[in-house]
Amino acid sequence: MIMKLNVICMSHTKEVKEMENLLEIINVSKQFRSGLYLGTNFKAVDNVSFNLENGEILLLVGESGCGKTTLSNLILGILKPSSGFIKYKGKITSKFRRNEKRSFIREVQPIFQDPYSTFNPFVRIDYYFEEVCSNFGITRSKSEIEQKINEVLNQVKIDTEIKGKFVHQFSGGQIQRLSIARALLANPSLLIADEAVTMIDASLRVGILNILSDLNKLLNLAILFITHDLSVGYYMVELSERTKTVVMYRGTIVEEATGENLFLNPLHPYTRQLIESVPSVDPNKKWHSAMKHAVLELEEFNLKGCKYSKRCPFAMKICEEKEPNLFSVEHSRVRCWLYSDTVDKSIALNKLKKNQ
Ligand SMILES: Nc1ncnc2c1ncn2[C@@H]1O[C@H](COP(=O)(O)OP(=O)(O)OP(=O)(O)O)[C@@H](O)[C@H]1O
Ligand code: SF4
Ligand SMILES: [Mg+2]
Helices (H) and strands (E) in the chain — how many of each? Predict the structure, then answer.
């Protein structure tokens, strides 16, 4: 691992800019119990905070089991936070009135990993789309509904006839595009795409990523794009300059940066190892992480200090004793003692010198 000394020795002051936030995740945690009887509690999401502005893409990455889907379910209201809260358009979602909740359900649309889960195999797609239009009350007359359906089909580049057809008559890639079209029928402000291309055939993945990026630009649509696959994430960053990235590890945010900074100048040792383990930035190729998954995942979740300390080549004494804060480093935030001004980093620096 190559780590530049000057990056570690940087001083870190940054003013947090007030932004026009669509979504605010504020100190959100979710505790689960692992095991049936004498189970252990652990936080699948641990004190997570970040903001998503209108029209922004936020790329949430991290290896399997780091808490991405749990966080997505907390935002969607499928799960309730154990602590912390979520704000949408400045209001706390758990305190929504009935009409605010209805608007939230319409405006925040999920795109699931398995596109088949969006559709009932026994219901014709055109009938289902008409139902969605009526349910959301976006369109009233039959001709308006038809116009809206045609509009969203164009936006996801479906040019085949959907009238009278069932889901099994489409390919996997087409079904995921239809599920995006279904979400667009609601005129959403935010799409939450959790592993949206993971189950899609490699040759069709790029097409879907391009569609999401086009929708973001065309409709100023915010997207929370969740993936464990860094090559897919990199492609999204290439497509959209406004992409912000959040890296999670064992329930916590370990790094937050612009897309460009994350891939060109990753700061956290975990992010560096993740990026180095991507063989290619081609989203058509599956990323097989070279990292070993920890045997004792639960133990890492419950570590007192840095959750990465069991794997980190630069771990210091303090790393095992105390969880690091998120330190601001230029335009990024990084949860690592290497970026603290008050910690003696001589041991880690010696390890680095040996590595260089
Ligand atoms: N309902 C639950 N009860 C107990 N543990 C859970 C529950 N849901 C998730 N977990 C655990 O919480 C951790 C985070 O799971 P989550 O599904 O959020 O991870 P993920 O980052 O989405 O992973 P993947 O990339 O595989 O989708 C995992 O250890 C998982 O086993
Ligand atoms: S805090 Fe310590 S163990 Fe954790 S990533 Fe930084 S150097 Fe490694
Ligand atoms: Mg998941």
Answer: 13, 12
Q: Which domain holds residue 35?
A: 5-355
Of the residues 60, 69, 229, which should be mutated to test ligand 1's pocket, given the most ligand atoms within 8 Å of the CB?
69
pTM (predicted TM-score):
0.90
User: Which listed ligand is nearest to 68 at the C-alpha?
Assistant: 1
Q: What is the mean pLDDT of the chain?
A: 87
Q: How far is the CA of 145 from the centre of ligand 1 (A)?
A: 38
Give pLDDT tens digits for 264-293: 999 999 999 998 877 555 555 554 444 444
The arithmetic mean of pLDDT across residues 37-58, rounded, is 91
Give the pLDDT mean for 115-142. 88
How many domains, the chain?
1
CA of 194 to the centre of ligand 3 (A): 7
**The domain that contains 188 carries what CATH number?**
3.40.50.300
**Nearest protein Cα to ligand 1, atom 11:** 44
Is 267 close to ligand 2, i.e. is its CB under 6 Å away?
A: no
